[in-house]
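Researcher: Going back to the complex we discussed earlier. I've cleaned up the inputs and rechecked each line, so this should be the final set. Can you rerun the prediction on the complete assembly and write out the structure?
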Amino acid sequence: MQTETLIKMANQIGDFFEAEPDEAQANLEIANHLNRFWTVDMRKQIATYVIEESGAGLHKQVVSAISSHLKV
Amino acid sequence: MDDIKYTKSNYIAPKYVPSPDYGTPKKVSEKLVMLTIDGVDISVPEGTSIMHAAQLSGVSVPKLCATDSLEPFGSCRLCLVEIEGRRGYPASCTTPVAEGIKVHTQTQKLADVRRGVMELYISDHPLDCLTCAANGDCELQDMAGAVGLREVRYGYEGENHLKAEKDETNPYFTFDPSKCIVCSRCVRACEETQGTFALTIEGRGFGSKVSAGNKDFMDSECVSCGACVQACPTATLMEKTVIEAGTPEHSIITTCAYCGVGCSFNAEMKGEEVVRMSPNKDGGANHGHSCVKGRFAWGYATHKDRITTPMIRKNITDPWQEVSWDEAINYAASEIKRIEAKYGKDAMGGITSSRCTNEEVYVTQKLVRAVFGTNNVDTCARVCHSPTGYGLKQTLGESAGTQTFDSVMKSDVIMIIGANPTDGHPVFASQMKRRLREGAKLIIADPRAIDLVENSPHVHADYHLNLRPGTNVALISALAHVVVTEGLVKEDFVKARCERDSFVAWRDFVAKPENSPEALEKELGVKAQTMREAARLFATGGNGAIYYGLGVTEHSQGSTMVMGIANLAMATGNLGREGVGVNPLRGQNNVQGSCDMGSMPHEFTGYRHVSDDATRALFEAAWGRPLSAEPGLRIPNMLDLAGEGRFKALYCVGEDIAQSDPNTQHVTHALESMECVIVQDLFLNETAMYAHVFFPGASFLEKSGTFTNAERRISPVRRVMAPKNGFEDWEITAKLSEALGYSMHYNHASEIMDEIAALTPTFKSVSFKKLDEFGSIQWPCDDENPSGTPTMHVDEFVRGKGKFFVTQYVPTSEKVNTKYPLIMTTGRILSQYNVGAQTRRTKNVEWHHEDVVEIHPHDAEERGVKEGDWIGITSRAGETVLRATLTERVQPGVIYTTFHHPESGANVITTDNSDWATNCPEFKVTAVQVTRVHQLSDWQKHYKTFSEAQIAFANKKLSTQQPA
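Model: Rerun complete. Updated structure for the full complex:
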């Protein structure tokens, strides 16, 4: 899948959970959403992107959620 | 419940026993009144009419103008009775019971009076009973017999109405005023049952006649619901099918296959031919009412375009080859095996549809999960109500609406957001309008002035919040801001029923000044004061119920808005009893059911995630196959991957993604890139034009199963004729499974439901036998609720405590600019249904034969566009051309169209933008430019050539319509 599509989707998810005042909780919720609704291939692709491209274009909080809690 | 096992040969639908016509509606009262009718004592609720009480005691009083779906009128003077100690002969329909009265329904005097009345009626009625379409089904005929009319002393030569001209303009029924007895049942049905007020009695005395507002029926306000035809006691209003075929000889109760109201119908049959679909009086969702689609638009089932022989082909550029079922199944299976071997199982998947029965959806997802070995299964709810499933599960704990339809009769304030019930859910709309005429208040949030705003007689919106498309979440925050900051929160309810922390976080969020109506006024385009007043009304006006549709879900923040609605309902204490609730109006008949049945890639039946080990173990044990713990691909994911050459095989049952999904060119590119597309459908639909295997499907009249409507009501679909294609759809799926080496042996659809019940806690006590017994059941139906659950979350929410979510408004990335300065939004019309595959193949096209674009006169003038001009609509995704109609229903800056005709290409324009949580497409917001043009768009020209070639390949003459 095109990485731009994944970035857009991940950022939209981030937008929703950014309203969560507890940052650690928000990280968990974002990663949990990806774990529950994205296929493992999509998760691997975004995780690889975060590592290889330092998550360019992704919201900071999404990068942090992916780095800390994503199941791949 | 478990003792009976149905098979195809032993399943006999319960015999339809028509309930008696009690003449006047049932009354509810705790106080009982005792009276004597013809020497028999009976006690009935206070307010009951003598006529109704008599029928309850088994006595039929002669009547013509009375029927129990309508309030009594007292005009025919046939139902007169004598009451001891009272003078005269009161009409039993309009006279309520009283304690201790003694009523006589048959005396010599009454017989004389009744004969005299009948004599007058018959003196001005054609005596063509033997050749009349109502022969044997005529109340006038029955009453002439009942009162013993033997002669008409006046003769027939005097002035009469026998030469009155017939009106045959409506495609489904005729109006023959020569047979009319002016009982007003049709007029009252149009008012009371349907709420359209299209009919009236014109003139006085002898000159009185029924009139559709001095117009013929087709040009009148009539919406062709058929309530008048059903109410007519004579042949004055008569179905054309009955005129052609004669009266039906048997009747089977089944469920409509159109919208999410899920009306119950008696399929009235002659052998295997449907003569009439008449709405079932005992139907829990519709109580004997119907709309133009359900009652009349079923001719598609026998339309010449039906494909009934399986077809295969190597490439989509090849002509189709008709083959036997075995050959088609084996070819499909060999292709699936080949693709699995070459690309792996994750390159395959399936799509189910909300038009399928629960049983069909269940076996399809079972096939994909257990046999394909992947969770790549999705359903068309992805593109409509997936945000409802997500949002309501998060907040309340269950992915379903909270109420019954009848609940609306106890609502004091009704809020409709992004739904158009009079067009999309007409039978429920009639009930809602009844409640509104009784005085309930109405708030409508919609960018467009739907009919309920001010175009429905005796109904108008108290507040129309005509927001800019895409700003829903800002609106719900503004309304919540008012509730929170003006002290209108139902603190007791919130304290007892909701998670405190979540409430506090939400309260503090919506109370922020940036969420005030004043701060958001400009963004929304709605006056702050109007929002404040609407919010106050909702919070303080008594029982508040929210009804919403795709105008809520089909947005980039669709799920956020669903949660925002649940937040508002919790904060105002409007959940857990009748008259309130969060009510998603489901577009298709089985949206709720297809979601319940585990057709989403991340969950099994009953909304249990595939990663849940205990649930997975349950299914692995039942199915005997290992199952994946990883969520599969959603439809848009499948299409993205297909376009990249990484998704190769699709089994698509009853769904037409090439027409119904956004960004058509992206979809067709994906379909062209696959190696095996299997389509199972009634017709060579748009997706089938890209298919390699075509399995002809069965219509709802040809199969057994169940549909689950918007109020979680599971209703039986019963086979009334043999499938023209040879098999019920679940049998085809089972055959494919068999060919892939996995036996799916069921003798009857009821055995599939038994398996669903065994594996799904909310369906635990559901069975076909129970459905035969109860008529329909609202889930959850288990040991605790053996007859189902009409209202959910009564004592506590399914998730325990209700959870508030902070709903930050994030404007869509689909923004207007100088290149695309307008917003296009979409909707449905009454006479057509979604992609139109069914309704376009009925006479409903007489109401809507092409999709047109509504544009505000101001925007039209700026572009030199006049009524009826062709206009080109260009978006970031594509271009199409449609005819314009100028109307102030849409606000300046917004255009609106329907999407019922494939050549319209409405989805050529819509984009890939989607809901953040569920990828439900943002159908409702597309930035566009509009210009006057003189020819079709390139896409439309290509479509015309391509579809004509594909139809030729199927060697069928299909009646697809092209723009003139």
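Model: Worth noting: Residues 822-910+934-953 of chain B form a domain with the Barwin-like endoglucanases fold (CATH 2.40.40.20).
Researcher: Good, that matches what I expected from the previous run.
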